[in-house]
Amino acid sequence: MPDLLLELFSEEIPARMQAKAADDLRRMVTDKLVAEGLVYEGAKAFATPRRLALTVHGIPARQPDLKTERRGPKIGAPDAAVQGFLKATGLKSLDEAKIQRDPKGDFYIGLIEKPGRDAIDVLAEILPVIIRTFPWPKSMRWGARSGKPGSLNWVRPLHAITATFGLETEEPDVVKFEVDGIQSGQTTYGHRFLAPAPIQVRRFEDYEAKLKAAKVILDPQARKDIIFADAKELTFAQGFELVEDQVLLDEVSGLVEWPVVMMGSFEAEYLAIPDEVIRATIRNNQKCFVVKDPKTGKLTNKFVLTANIEAADGGKVIVSGNERVIRPRLSDAKFFYETDLKNWKEKSVDQLLAKFGQIVFHEKLGNERQHVDRVVHLAVEIAPLVGADVEKVRRAAELARADRLSEVVGEFPELQGTMGKYYALAKGEEPSVAAAIEDHYKPLGQSDGVPTDPVSIAVALADKIDMLVGFWGIDEKPTGSKDPYALRRAALGVIRIILENKLHLPLVDIFTTADIECFLDIKSARLEGSRIALIRVERESGLFDAAVQKAWSDLVDETFSDDVVEQESKTAKERVFGLLDFLVDRLEVQLRAVGARHDLVQAAFAIALEDDLLTIVRRVEALGKFLDTDDGKNLLAGTKRASNILSIEEKKDKRTYDGAPDPELMTDDYERHLWRTIQSTVADAKLHVGKQDFEAAMESLSTLRTAVDAFFDKVRVNDDDAKVRENRLKLLNEIRSATRAVADFSKIQD
């Protein structure tokens, strides 16, 4: 079947737009083909700095013929309706129509036959529409035609359109159309400087080969491979090692059509700057890779650049030009770094944070200084729970964001935290304090590591929890795909820090402490030096209400009325538990990503208010292993059978069957055996749950399996004696209750 070759040749396409543009072109063309009944075999799109290209192979040469039936008027309908039907269907008379029998009357049916068109004609119709409606994030108009209505908008001036269609074994035809005065054809152009002459192309294989001969590597991945391999070889040959950077590699490959790798250098004096600053300077300003000494792991005074031309002098002028640009940039970076060091050494924490009071964190959550104070307070509360030194945590939390006002971070925002570490060490801070300043932002993504030092853990958790609680407090929660404050990422960060460090934390307590702090900031209240004690909230909701009420009564400024205190106590509970639900939802997502079942998370969480995420995960793991065994599967089936019978009978009787069964009413040995087994199993399972030995608790539950099976096999639940029936229904309720020692089996899917 025929193939399509399409190329849109223009001025420079920004590197950041190329990958999406190629994908958009493939999607738009193939979607239209399918909609027109032209189902293709495969498609691939490409992008270079000057062109978007697409090949679609295996397109049918012609659309299939379409036959559709159209229902017309009833037999005996007015002539106007009949004439309208004949005109719409193209029939000459009603003799050509079929008659459909229907209870409401007999109707005329017209068969409409629409012959398919040649695929090349369909392409000539759809391609101009796609080009005119292409979704560039930014576009422009140009030339004399730009002032006319309907003139083309494109990312940069469009110069040529190549569009051919045909069989591999034959000379292809040009898909003829015109867009804004540009006629489609078979002409494209090679490298801007090395081979600028026009090139006549036919099909994709011919097109790709001729472009390569004209110094253009069409495939972005091929360009990446060339740059990476040549850079590795060049640095290795000189005894160095390339610092790999996939993001930079992606960008650089979009800046060149014919990559040529070269090496430059800068003065060794700049190596006194931290490696991260050197790398950011060279990477951001010149799109160059840095080089390290494999023996020390430190950067050398070399860099690798990628040119778009084979220079006659071997690249000496190109390298020299890059060195001339990099040198003053590094000089600026060195000045910024030294200025920052001086400030940190000479100023107190209050002086470093002085401007934070003038910077808005969020209009409803106060300024940056208030945010810092909240994080400090919360981090100090968390410190003993994770085994961290309280004073080190306090110091790290105070300094955690201070580098955001530094000169280097102002130039390179991605270095916040990293620069704070260097400045803190220069200031003489403890290494764990400096590490916490760098690590408190982590993890920034799934591939990023989590903090492991206790001081870092406390500050990282405090920073993320303050964000979550604060934005929950002002009702700025994530909705659908919108999450402007990255709260989902913050929640996943909290989860990963807790799980990967195997921490048991009372999140309800911590959230409540943070919630009160946020309220006080929002209302501009003063604590007058008092310190909020960690609220030890019991799991029962009534005690939660009492504890929160007392916290507000003790700590809220006297200017707030009792009504305000009471209302805030209630809404605090709603916020805290709403946030906990959100975290559990994120935990489900995290567990599903590693293959766990979401229903097991719900089953583990549903048995009580459980805010210890590590305990939830261990319950889930043990429950999953148990349900993979025959005992687990059979007990689940038995428990669900008991629940189903109970639900039916409770609905019929309009009552519940709570309460312990009466042993005196047990007339069968199997029900007496089941009752004794339930009692011993529940006691044993709860003992193991108390020790957080969930696998042992599941093993205890497994002893229920044979007793439950025997009961259902030998005992008739709906006995003729009403009291015996009631007693046996209570026994079924006990089966259901017994499994709740470890999980709510009703939440588990079969």
What's the Cα radius of gyration?
Answer: 36 Å
Structural class: alpha+beta
Shape field: flat
Total beta-strand segments: 18
Helices and strands in order:
Blueprint: E1 3-10, H1 15-35, E2 42-48, E3 51-57, E4 66-74, H2 79-89, E5 98-100, E6 107-114, H3 119-132, E7 158-166, E8 173-174, E9 178-179, E10 182-185, E11 187-189, E12 198-200, H4 204-213, H5 220-237, E13 241-242, H6 246-253, E14 260-265, H7 275-286, E15 289-292, E16 299-307, H8 316-346, H9 349-352, E17 360-362, E18 366-367, H10 368-382, H11 390-399, H12 407-411, H13 418-427, H14 431-439, H15 454-473, H16 487-500, H17 507-522, H18 541-555, H19 562-593, H20 598-605, H21 613-627, H22 630-653, H23 669-690, H24 694-702, H25 704-714, H26 722-739
Parallel strand pairs: 7-10
Antiparallel strand pairs: 1-3, 1-7, 2-3, 4-6, 5-6, 7-8, 9-10, 11-12, 13-15, 14-16, 15-16, 17-18
How would you describe what is shown here?
- Helices cover 51% and strands 12% of the residues.
- It has 750 residues and is α+β, with helices and mostly antiparallel strands.
- It folds into five domains: 3-61 and 119-213, Alpha-Beta Plaits (2-Layer Sandwich); 66-114, no CATH class; 220-346, no CATH class; 364-401 and 431-594, no CATH class; 615-747, Isoleucyl-tRNA Synthetase, Domain 1.
- The strands form five sheets. Strands 1, 2, 3, 7, 8, 9 and 10 form a seven-stranded mixed β-sheet that branches. Strands 13-15-16-14 form a four-stranded antiparallel β-sheet, sandwiched between helices.
- Helix 22 (630-653) crosses helix 25.
- It is flat.
